[in-house]
Amino acid sequence: MMSDRSARIIIVCEDTQQHVFARRVLMKLGVPNHDLHWENAPRGMSDAKQWIREKGLPAEWAAFNGYCRKNSKNRRVLFVVSDADEKTAEQRIVDLAAQCNPTPGIEDHVCFVVPKWAIETWFKFLRGEPSDEGSKITRSDKYPCARDCWDDADRLAMLCEGGSLPANAPASLRSTCERFAKIRKQLR
Fold first, then answer.
1. In which domain, by residue range, is 120 found?
2. Coil, strand or helix at 102
3. 3 within a domain of the structure (yes/no)
């Protein structure tokens, strides 16, 4: 894994929608497309979270951590995108970090992006629609094409960059914006 050694940011995510959203936000925050590499759960997997926990994250973390031990950690980030579902975002982050050996520390430049039930909850909020992190998303809440989220990603990048996320933003989105702020410093 981590096949693109020139990539500054490795994105590990459950699906194409998460990948497209994360990629677009990062590009809007100034990361060039050629600096990004991603690994999605293979199509047709019944449990993408299981793939992240058991295969995707441990393998990418091992490659990322090994590379950073031999080279400068500066300007390299491992992005992990996974839904929290029935857990809180913080509980999911702890669970994900526990899959890494050794567990990443604050100096390791790992950014966990964890929406509560699904990233579509964030899309609804970013479009100005009523959004409840405690409610599951229905099929009608999903975009027909992953790229349809670009306006939402652009809006989030602008809000995070300007530090102007509204007070009623979902808690998991607010904490992700805070993590983006820390990572942006690393990327410059």
1. 9-187
2. coil
3. no
